[in-house]
Write a structure and sequence with these properties.
This is Fe/S biogenesis protein NfuA. Homodimer. The chain is built from 3 helices and 10 strands; from the N terminus they run E-H-E-E-E-E-E-E-H-E-E-H-E. The chain is an alpha/beta fold. The chain has 2 domains: 92 residues, HesB-like domain (Hypothetical Protein Aq_1857, Chain: A, Sandwich); 73 residues, GMP Synthetase, Chain A, domain 3. The strands form 3 sheets. A 4-stranded mixed sheet has the order 3-2-5-4. Strands 1-6-7 form a 3-stranded mixed sheet. A 3-stranded mixed sheet has the order 8-9-10, with helices on one face. Helix 2 crosses helix 3. The termini are far apart.
Amino acid sequence: MLNVTITDSAQTYLRELLEKQACEGIGIRMFVSNPGTPQAETCIAYCRPGEAEEADHVMELSGFNAYFEDRSVPFLDEAKVDYAPDKMGGQLTIRAPNSKMPKISDDSPIEDKINYVLYNEVNPGLASHGGNVSLERLTDDGMAILRFGGGCQGCSAVDMTLKQGVEKTLMERIPELAGVRDVTDHSDKSNAYY
């Protein structure tokens, strides 16, 4: 269920922005990029007719529709969009307190499951060496493409960390994952732990 508040002042501001686009039926689309991770960002974009996804949730507002990416809905729970006018014009604010919170279930997308394991199980251990690992992308054949950073980039022990730590943990927790691949440039050893 959609639990997002768009205040009257935000609706007025957004409606005025949309009217300037001179596009009949234009709305907004709200989504979270990198949901459930520390890098999560809540975004609002124009949504021209035909750009909404079939699975999007729709909120009918005064003068326009707001579309919400289905995958982002759990991360937008209790989100609030507000507009506060000031001397310089005003500011649109988006508060999404659950955007960085992992919300994983059996039917969650595999990318969310990978990010959950990386940020909650793997990275806390790597942080003791000043390192981290993140998901770059998931290939069509189910391979997780990972990038190491911090003390892990260029570290001589990264192969062992990848195979015996990261890959083993991910494969145990996410059986549908085909494997992992590291795309980090390890020739840069400036921050390497070992």
